Input
Amino acid sequence: MTDLFAKFAPQIELRDGLLKSGVTDPFGLVMERVESPTVAICNGKRTILLGTYNYMGMTFDPDVVAAGKKALDEFGSGTTGSRVLNGTYVGHKEVEQALKDFYAMDHAMVFSTGYQANLGIISTIAGKDDYIILDIDSHASIYDGCALGNAQIVPFRHNNVEALDKRLKRLPPEAGKLVVLEGVYSMLGDLAPLKEMVAVSKAAGAMVLVDEAHSMGFIGEHGRGVVELQGVIDDVDFIIGTFSKSVGTVGGFCVSNHPKFEILRLVCRPYVFTASLPPSVVATAATSIRKLMNSADKRAHLWENSKRLHAGLRQLGFTLGTEEPQSAIIAVIMPDLEKGAAMWEALLNEGLYVNLARPPATPANMTLLRCSLCALHTEEQVGEILSMFAAAGRATGCIS
Ligand SMILES: Cc1ncc(COP(=O)(O)O)c(C=O)c1O
Output
């Protein structure tokens, strides 16, 4: 018998080597209790959370929790069916209406995860003879959507408008083209130059899809994302998003003004051939989305947190993913995986959780400590976080 696991040998070796060095498994942490969007108990210790995607701190919002409990009581624990059969409840229509209101768009389609939203929309609209032109640092769900639809993939250098333009100009003018971009790239926390990219895409006759997973709720005057910040929301064809970040639950969606959009409900396999979200989840999502429409103060505080953390880390001597804070993600660049894991563990021992990210998820083979801020981190907590980085950085030799 051929061992089908043989292909995983390099990953097994890397993991074993890391664990043999005595470091705690950075990918096996258990949250024993979660006290709030910013504090949990891990290994019996109070730990500040700086590695969640709870940007707007909605997970413990009393209205959100109450809506979930009410739906659980009134509609039960799950739908046990697809959206196109028995799985559309009034709550699914309500959350789609909340999304249409949030984005001021004509259509909204909710999926069971953001991963499935990318998988479904991309694979359904771009098929075998079409071209998908995408940033090389795109999220795995975007790449998987391309593979599922079997389209021709044309990657271009990260955030490089000229490279995108060149690729587009080389394609047959009559071919179907979809340009796929992200508002915020989640590894380094940098923004895409959407204004310029949308302009060159439209000039080449391409449709444009923007994944705003890491900007919804926070970036733009109404929290509609980088498309809003850069004034191109009316020029893009599809916005993809998730409920697993600022919205604070689970689920994914696509919003659009395309007049034929609704047909996707019948032809998009990752929408049709899976069970719909539980009623409690769509109720929490709808309540959260409506509250995010009126969260300007929280957005302002989150920007303050992001600026304070970025400046403080830089002052301590860490190398960061962006020159200026551009989003709620601040990435600290580590020299290698060993140092990164040691620093991650030292921070955990101090009482701070961050995300350790490594290739292939990261660009240019980087090891990163990704810090994602929450609108509910207090000024004092950001101060505590910086003290922990200083202590852990010195203990591991990452800073002097
Ligand atoms: C850019 C991007 N798109 C899509 C997703 C998938 O979202 P979900 O967690 O809802 O599956 C993620 C999740 O990390 C993401 O970062």
